[in-house]
């Protein structure tokens, strides 16, 4: 059997998740090439043989879609892209995600898009319509990840002032959402449409004071707890199944809020998800499962 070729398209190949994928591919005797989309020349036509698989692990946080062009070109040559390009395009942008999932009637956090001047009355009416107080908000860049470019804003005056600055800088690619407190946060990793692992986030250490509670920023202060399959709330299972159906992908990372009173709300879905924190909760290798479930692995 000929050795298969795999490309990993990523800007940071030293992260836990990238190294784990590389190791799992090596175990399966793949020939592996790393492409950094920020330091790569795309040749059209390409003289070399295209890879069998390209793992698209670039998130595009700098609003440059060169990485998508690389994947699209390899796809046109017959390479299988993990995950599908159409799904990557939808999920790499928080605004696109909100529009997409809302169009499919999936429960999302109310989301406000804005261009131009901030209107207090209009925004207050939107808060009232969605039944949450206009006291604290989260401002996120459309393509930020890992908590970068995320701000907690207290009060409409502060939000208006911050937006005035953003408007003056001529870069309004942000979304505004209500800050939801005292609601449990869950993280899922879905492989081939099934929940491979589900975890619930613990409380952050009180001295941290980082509302983002991002995994790689509070590694020592905020722990995840694995939820066994029978104990996963059925609303979460139902939402995960719906997401997997609407977003065809080999694997997905899903963050969501859930409590008995408010139900479930989708925070974010990621087609290039990292899995360092979740891997600590299971003896089964997540990266091995990703590779082993390839069609011809």
Describe the structure.
The protein has nine helices and 13 strands. The protein has 297 residues and is of the alpha+beta class. It folds into three domains: 78 residues, 3-Layer(aba) Sandwich (Rossmann fold); 125 residues, ATP-grasp fold, B domain (D-amino Acid Aminotransferase, Chain A, domain 1), CATH 3.30.470; 67 residues, Dna Ligase, domain 1, CATH 3.30.1490. The strands form three sheets. The chain has a five-stranded antiparallel β-sheet, sandwiched between helices. It has a four-stranded parallel β-sheet with strand order 2-1-3-4, sandwiched between helices. A four-stranded antiparallel β-sheet has the order 5-8-6-7, with helices on one face.
Annotate the secondary structure layout:
Layout lengths: L4 E5 L6 H12 L3 E5 L17 E4 L9 H11 L3 E3 L2 H7 L2 H10 L8 E2 L6 H10 L6 E6 L8 E5 L1 H13 L5 E5 L5 E8 L2 E8 L22 E3 L7 H13 L4 E9 L3 E8 L5 H4 L6 H7 L5
Parallel strand pairs: 1-2, 1-3, 3-4
Antiparallel strand pairs: 5-8, 6-7, 6-8, 9-10, 9-12, 10-11, 12-13
